[in-house]
Fold this protein.
Amino acid sequence: MARTKDFDEAEVLNKALCLFWHKGYNGTSMQELVDHLGISRSSLYDTYADKHSLYIKSLEFYQNNSRHKMDDIAANATSAKEAITQLFTLMTTELLTDDQQKGCFIVNSEVELAPHDPEVRLIIRRNESQIEDILVAVIQKGQESGEIANKQDARAIARFIFNAVKGMRVSAKLTTDKAFFNDIIKITLSVLD
Amino acid sequence: MARTKDFDEAEVLNKALCLFWHKGYNGTSMQELVDHLGISRSSLYDTYADKHSLYIKSLEFYQNNSRHKMDDIAANATSAKEAITQLFTLMTTELLTDDQQKGCFIVNSEVELAPHDPEVRLIIRRNESQIEDILVAVIQKGQESGEIANKQDARAIARFIFNAVKGMRVSAKLTTDKAFFNDIIKITLSVLD
DNA sequence: ATCAAAATCCTTAGTTCTTGCCATGCCAGA
DNA sequence: TCTGGCATGGCAAGAACTAAGGATTTTGAT
């Protein structure tokens, strides 16, 4: 028995996410958010409580999206190696085609806030283990079918792979040189042979 | 014909570096710096001009220190593999023994400021190529002596190695679990065989 | 030796702008 | 009609930086 919201919450959240992603938590002011979200200051505070809550919601939004993408690939790929290759290309194209060079929002949050912010830490830890588990499952399947070299522990390989991705997500802040990333990807994937 | 400085500029710069390293550029206020550096506000501004200049000087200071450490290892190691192993242990122990979990100051700067700050970008690019060159030299020597597998391009291997280090420097913000890092290091180094 | 000048030191206060957040009041819709 | 979204203006604190004033230490000229 009250007025309905004029805006789409998810849509606005996505805009907030883009700003935080691009400029970081401390680098983004509430005024900037007000200017870019298309809603008023009061609506912003009514809907998302305060700056920190808005950031947390943005981070969770981003994390869910990227996990779903990975899940899809893992579920639909025909082979383990293809799955991993697809995951790599998914992430790198996302990194390299962004002319703002925002990198990865989770890595950004991890570097800027993880040591100081328990809530951020919790989300990133959850993300970490989810991604790791997805990779472990894929790798184990590949090892059972003989597609992937069996000599290393699957979890160790998963951590190794994910670590390489993290490195590239940092480098994407500085360069978009494809040759640079191809060098890294080629050798990283060679471990699976 | 004037009074000499009472404090050691490098020492104070190191304190500033520690603050920026721990809390980032936007997360550190001038008031905090005044409180922790042991010199007065006016001395701070007289000596280092402004906040941004102080940050740049801190970054250059850090970059020079870490490069010198790497140079020493590269120059004194008896073999290529030993050099790389030493570089890895140098960096990881530095990362894992820090109870503040500051990570790597260059990676932190790259993530927080590189897309927005041309001066920071320049310093990090220089660092990038210097480290890469050190690694290339070590790897080439190892390949010539047959100690390192020759099948891959030396620069590609260098980029791969450095990329793995970057990944770990991000993860160090969240965890200090040695088993986690050992998994990554073991597989990363296996590429050299 | 003495004194003036220059450069450093510190304290304190102030300026200006931005920060995150809130209180009031109006208005739309169930 | 009355709940809740929306717009406006404002507030207290914090941001970076500056200015004023006095004390101290070094140098060079007298």
In short: Chain B has a mean pLDDT of 96. The two ends of chain B are 63 Å apart (CA to CA).
